[in-house]
Amino acid sequence: MTERHPNPEDFDLYAFGALDGEDKVAFEAHVRSCAECRQSLQEARRLSSLLGLVEAPVTPPSAVKEALMKQVRRESAERKKQMAPERPRRASWSLRFALGFAFAAVAMGFAASFFWKEDQWQRQEIKALQAQIYSTQAQVNHDAAALKTMNAVVGAADTVQVALVQQSSSMPGQAHVLFNARMGVVVYSGEVAPAPAGRSYQLWLVPSAGAPVSAGLVAADQQGQSVVVHLQPGMTAKAFAVTLEPYGGRPQPTGPKVLVGALNG
Ligand SMILES: [Zn+2]
After folding, report:
1. Rounded to the nearest whole angstrom, what is the distance from the C-alpha of residue 10 to the centroid of ligand 1?
2. What separation in Å is there between the alpha carbon of 83 and the centre of ligand 1?
3. Is residue 115 in a domain?
4. Domain range for 221
5. CA atoms within 13 A on the CB side of 12
6. Is 129 domain-assigned?
7. pLDDT averaged over the chain?
8. pTM of the predicted model, to two decimals?
9. Domain with 256 in it: what CATH number?
């Protein structure tokens, strides 16, 4: 057993993980064989845990550790000068202050990680906004393209206009289609009574020969917003029709004809 008890501040330094080298070896050797100092170490550990330095293997930043050691050595030297024969076994205020400073450094570490997370979150927000902008841009591009196609269809001499009329005992409505066979483009606009729940309106091109070709779903109110549909160019149509289909539409018409319009000749 080492004869002398360690300096009182060594208990705090050790509990904080700031004691190293020969000092640490000597301290540990002494504490192993001295019940009184084991007791003191326990108290130091309890105090350092109160300061928030709970996890034992906390490695203090070297700058903090250095400042701490410097402070402790200065105090030790002063104490030796005073030659106090029996010192009360408690850490000085300045050491507590140094530990508090170390605690602040740990808290800064937590704050840094918090801000890093905050930053990640902001990055995600920015990504979401960018996605929104891209999607809006895509919509604008799509609308611009649709408008361009519509203008081309309206301006073309070989475009035909077909009036779609309400069929007896069906939903009230009316619509018309601009069709350009060469371009394979159908422009639909019109209005029908709202579809019953779970049903959709579907537009069909009825060719001169063969089965109807789906031109996609249309909303009940397409009066102000024309639908531009691209089909295979070169198809000859004899009629257009709107049917009421199960929600989402069907590959072939299954429901009642709501609106029908035949091409002249
Ligand atoms: Zn001892």
Report:
1. 12
2. 19
3. no
4. 160-262
5. 24
6. no
7. 81
8. 0.52
9. 2.60.40
